Amino acid sequence: MFRSHTCGELRLDNAGTEVTLAGWVQTVRKFGAITFVDLRDRYGITQLYFNEDLNPQLDAEPLGREFVLQATGKVIERSNKNPNLPTGEIEILVQSFTILNKSAVPPFSIQDDTDGGDDVRMKYRYLDLRRNVIKKNLELRYAVNRATRDYLHGQGFMDIETPFLIKSTPEGARDFVVPSRMNEGQFYALPQSPQTFKQLLMVSGYDRYYQIVKCFRDEDLRADRQPEFTQIDCEMAFVEQEDILVMFEGLIKSIFKQVKGIDYADAVERITWEDAMWHYGNDKPDIRFGMKVANLKSAFNKGGEIVATGELINGADFKVFDEAETVLAIAVPGAAEWSRKQTDELTEWVKRPQIGMKGLAFIKCNADGTYKSSIDKFYSEEKLAAIAQFANAKAGDLILILAGAEERTRKAISDLRLELGERMGLRKKDEFRLLWVMDFPLFEYAEEENRWVARHHPFTSPKPDHIQTMIMNDPFIMSAVDYLKHPYATIKANAYDMVLNGNEIGGGSIRIYQRELQEKMFAALGMTEEEALHKFGFLLGAFEYGAPPHGGIAFGFDRLCAILGGSESIRDFIAFPKNNSGRDVMLDAPATIDEKQLKELSIRLSEL
Amino acid sequence: MFRSHTCGELRLDNAGTEVTLAGWVQTVRKFGAITFVDLRDRYGITQLYFNEDLNPQLDAEPLGREFVLQATGKVIERSNKNPNLPTGEIEILVQSFTILNKSAVPPFSIQDDTDGGDDVRMKYRYLDLRRNVIKKNLELRYAVNRATRDYLHGQGFMDIETPFLIKSTPEGARDFVVPSRMNEGQFYALPQSPQTFKQLLMVSGYDRYYQIVKCFRDEDLRADRQPEFTQIDCEMAFVEQEDILVMFEGLIKSIFKQVKGIDYADAVERITWEDAMWHYGNDKPDIRFGMKVANLKSAFNKGGEIVATGELINGADFKVFDEAETVLAIAVPGAAEWSRKQTDELTEWVKRPQIGMKGLAFIKCNADGTYKSSIDKFYSEEKLAAIAQFANAKAGDLILILAGAEERTRKAISDLRLELGERMGLRKKDEFRLLWVMDFPLFEYAEEENRWVARHHPFTSPKPDHIQTMIMNDPFIMSAVDYLKHPYATIKANAYDMVLNGNEIGGGSIRIYQRELQEKMFAALGMTEEEALHKFGFLLGAFEYGAPPHGGIAFGFDRLCAILGGSESIRDFIAFPKNNSGRDVMLDAPATIDEKQLKELSIRLSEL
Description:
The structure is a homodimer.
Chain A lengths: L17 E14 L2 E8 L2 E7 L4 H6 L7 E10 L12 E12 L16 H6 L1 H4 L3 H23 L3 E2 L17 E3 L7 E3 L5 H9 L4 E9 L11 E10 L3 H20 L8 E4 H8 L13 E2 L5 E2 L2 E2 L12 H5 L2 E7 L7 H12 L9 E5 L5 E3 L7 H10 L7 E7 L1 H18 L10 E5 L4 E4 L4 E4 L12 H6 L22 E6 L2 E8 L4 H10 L4 H14 L7 E7 H8 L30 H6 L2 E3 L3
Parallel strand pairs in A: 3-5, 6-9, 11-19
Antiparallel strand pairs in A: 1-2, 1-4, 2-3, 4-5, 7-8, 9-10, 10-24, 12-15, 13-14, 15-18, 16-17, 16-18, 19-22, 20-21, 22-23, 23-24
């Protein structure tokens, strides 16, 4: 061992002990004949004190930043203590030292507020990983890993490894493929998730499975997407939806406790997908703050009760509202006092192309009970009061109203709500609010192909009382414009997402476990019988030999870690991430390969 | 939840309780109006008792093997107890039941001694996985996984994920490659091991790293090799070889304890590679039994002492020994009494093409102190006595002698020793003996290319006092015949293998951490400077910025599990293995892919 202690563990109690430390030179400071070195390792920083006796050696072998140094000496009390450092009460009076390895001058400073840009830090990722901020992220990631395994182990789950070289079944996302040398002209695919394998394990009787596992998707990379990413993948047999919700609330709460020391005592709230869309304009609402969306126009049939009919705004001869498909409002608490400049700025904000609205109407609910509005030409004080009441606005609030086509307006009000939450400090980084979003539609309409696609995946079960609707109706869509009138549009799935602070951190479903229903699902998605057999014959086969009821969930491990670490970027929580073109700039990969390799694989490059 | 209890947990204490179980029908037995069903799940088997009231339902919906059944009833004491079953004292008096799913008749029986052949079991792997023997294997695998993580976590190791889409660096084994769609004409490679990444993590300061990780090698598959396999991959910084040996003995002992309940109190024996080759003919000796090899001819210079000079056998005018490069003997304890038929059979055994020897000489060391030998025409009683003494034979032992070319004879005596150990019951499945084999040669000679290759890998450090030999000598091999005279042939590595019961379960080394030495190593392996930079520029770069001394080890996780499970075959310890052609016969993968996929990847198939 090159050291007797780490650079993080010595305290005043150790004074007088002879120790050997090894680590990296963080700083070298000379005061006359005396030299101080901050020596850094994974565990901390300890100050080394070189007195003048060592100057001949220091002159002969000068120390530099990031040199690897081994030093032996005595722990002594510091005269000038540093209360910000756990080791700040002591230093090492160095008796001898050895430079274990030199370092060139690093291309950026190894500090929290580094001077290195993104590109250079990615190229020298091994240096970037030395920075304390990144180290803390990877430590947090490991803590989440450990907490996950501890909880699931305690609940009887087994980690079972599923294969990486599998079969390409192009559904949804694109597969990465791997040419097989031994099976000429054939390819493996890398798994987008172990979905079918974990279902087979349920058929095999391993009723509680989990894995923390790499998955692969060859998608055009948006910011903060990685071609390889990690999932906490779980499946259970002989369970109903409720069992899964309870089990995995438990997982996340246990992670909160073990990793962040947070007791999440509250019950996890639940909302249907439909309510989420109506009340937040969004299927992953951030419920750390209110400002729910009020729908001033479209009839919303909620359990037989019509929530809005448009009567609040109709008949006022205000064309913008009259002609709009949707009119949505939020009440911003305490914002009635906002200046003209502020509301103008917000108007500009919603008119930006990313949001794409034509304008923003507002109603100020003054403290004295009066109203002032950008639309009071059209609406009487009584009307404004009625709108305010409907939008749950109180005296002192500012009501913001957007109008336009349904989908765009809904997204805009959601973006506006989040932006205001951000600006008003309501999205606190140290506050964590979980939410189950449930009862998703089973199908989505794919416009380009005029067919149904699975909203979650083709293995998700419809709600039991919607199975008949699926079985009894032909998936064929007669009129693309009226696709919403097709019975399939009403089918809800036994699917659920877990949302944390406005981010989807996991999603799952109860699965189909009957061959006939699974075949109907494949047919609904436009697969011929032959295709279904070619791609998923093994699963259909398995369902013939006693498949139990089962369901599961998968959490996006990278994102979960990022959110727990208070960051938006998953890349900072991955040791060796790829850039937005899917390149590892440190390795310089992908790269060309030898002609010999291509030949062995029986493939050629297309002429470029 | 579809059950209140599992099929493995009910005992006599539970009598009187109303319970609901769910599982698979193992057997259905009818006795007159009464029906017994053994219901099976992951946790065990419980007997269900259907009385005549249920016969109408049983007649309407007959139960069959592997049906998924949910049954509610009362726990009652069994009249006819089964002491072989943990639940054997009770049964469930069924009040109601539901068939959750039917099953076709399985293609083989779901029993320990199944009637299914290898092919059909692989095709229906999801049914094979239901068998108790396979389930026990996967449970053992998970227990080893868990024990590994517990130990390493306790020692301050961090699980850090390394990437799967990396760069192809064809050294040694062949890479699997992955065409990149976004980077036309370029390919990722799947890692053969995270070797360079774990070294970078050491450079980054994460001084204790581990991962249980999938690795990939596109090799022609021998029996019991898999294209994807799992490693326990570990690395430490600021350590010397001794620190690593102690740390990972601790890991394996901890696995023994946690998984098998074995206290492995003995110190782990150590042997140099040279001694292993001479005393066992093998670099992974099984030390559960003795029968060490005696080398009757070649001078063996062991630390200055010549161990054998050939004087025992020379000058007797026995041409077979005189002309042989090597003459090796083992003494089989208590075998002097073996019949002529037995020694003849052994002679046939060594003459088989797999062994390839021309014959077998023997010396019986009779109980009365006399000797009888197949070669006593040439050797006097005194000479035989001297040979017997040298071979450590006692009265009652049988000495077996093989002669021939060195490499073949050495391998043959090793095979013979293992075969005899097997036949004599000395290789006990429940005995575990660990051994470190150390001081491997740094280089191996590659005959076809007349150059040096790395025996372990190009990142392994020479022993400190051999570094000069490497630096001061040109790798060029003037005469292929005399390659053993090249100074490189004498260089030993700081490398070590852990051997368990004659199987290499892990191997590692102290790594090179200086750029100059690493460059010299790449040059020694015949890489040009340009090639070295193209392939490993990132590592050479990292070594310039303060790389600490480091080393590590990787264990073959699949094999470790198989040995702990008392099996030779790793395939039985992998949930979804591939066959010897690298195919997953259940999935029918690899498979052809769409023309559209090929086009997107800018590749074409070669004309076949």
